[in-house]
Amino acid sequence: MIQRIQTIFLLLAVLAIIATMCLPMAMLYDEGVLVGRVSFLGISTRLVQSDVCTSCFVVLQILSYVALGIAAAIDIIGIFLFKKRPMQMTMCRISNVLIVISCLLMGNNLYSCGQVISPTVYAALPIIAIVLNIMARVAINKDEKLVRSADRLR
Hints:
Blueprint: H1 5-22, E1 26-30, E2 33-39, E3 42-44, H2 58-79, H3 85-113, E4 116-119, H4 125-153
Antiparallel strand pairs: 1-2, 1-4, 2-3
Helix pairs in contact: 1-2, 1-4, 2-3, 3-4
């Protein structure tokens, strides 16, 4: 049903993914001076005029942003597939894979910039979203086992 605990987990995962897309993941420093904030939206260099790497793999950054958006959409769709529990579990797996792919792309983007990188607290949000997806998958699996055992009794 839609009021199950996995709905709460999936909603929290969606909120974590959306926050990941908007909040800065890291700060860029050049000789001890803050020169930019890095988020999945891009590198903000409005702080100090510097030749910070703003065009580092723009395609990879767009792909990582799109992967996070698709992961959030999959989790939202998964909430409404409460009658198809195996499909819900599969969607949780796909969402986790997309989150990992987007984080790897973002890490590659950050590593290639060559600046001193200081991660923020918000860099843990993708991990929180993955854990919430796993918790939702476990709850969905428990429901599926319960339904199968009830079907066996009939």
